[in-house]
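Narrative of activities, Objective 1.

The group set out to show that a structural description can be obtained from nothing but a protein's sequence at a throughput compatible with the screening campaign. Below is one input-output pair from the validation batch, recorded exactly as produced.
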Amino acid sequence: MEPVLHAITHRRAIKVFDAATVIPLDLREKVLDAARHAPSSFNTQPYRVYWAESPAEKAAVAKLCLGQAPANSASALVVVVADIGSISATQQAQACWMRKNNFSEEHVCNYERTARIGRLVFAPGPFGIFGAIKKTLFRLVNLCRPMGMPPCSREEIFKWATKSTSLACQNLMIAAEVLGMNTCPMEGFDGRRLLRYLGLSGRQHEVVMVIAIGRKSASYVEQPQWRRPLSATVTVL
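Output recorded for this entry:
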């Protein structure tokens, strides 16, 4: 555990990378594999990851990241996208996996039933009408007993998907640090044009962040890191 804890506490957002560094294929696969093993709500994994590494692709993505220094000097740029349109296909794939791995048919049927209910609960419906009805019903029930409020609008569904997507981003960055690479998460980008460049629809996709990855430049000097003390951050009940 010590290398992982060291990576968590010593990770920095690197602003200038060594442009000559090439990321080996096996390291790239390990980093991306770590991302997909992040926890997600109901194991829906509502995200897609795009790795831009060739000079042309990297330059195009860097331009849409507003020409930031990390984007221009990184060995690769990882565009991480919340994908609310993949939920049904992911659940079907999991059901197939369960059958191939000899789960009982009862177990698979229970999973498929839960998945259908989940899709129904999450669906906003045409013009958001179903979402508005759900929100009203859940609020009425909430008057009688405590309960969670599911995402009812498209905006709320994207917010839900962004939480799981962010966990995948963190896994990727920590894995990169453990494996001797450096990263810089970036929120400064033209999300609309990035989606169009990737051939994605804004109705089902939203860029959560772009992660620059590589090895920091020998000339780059890290600044000391400050974090609030535990006493100012954590309350033990």
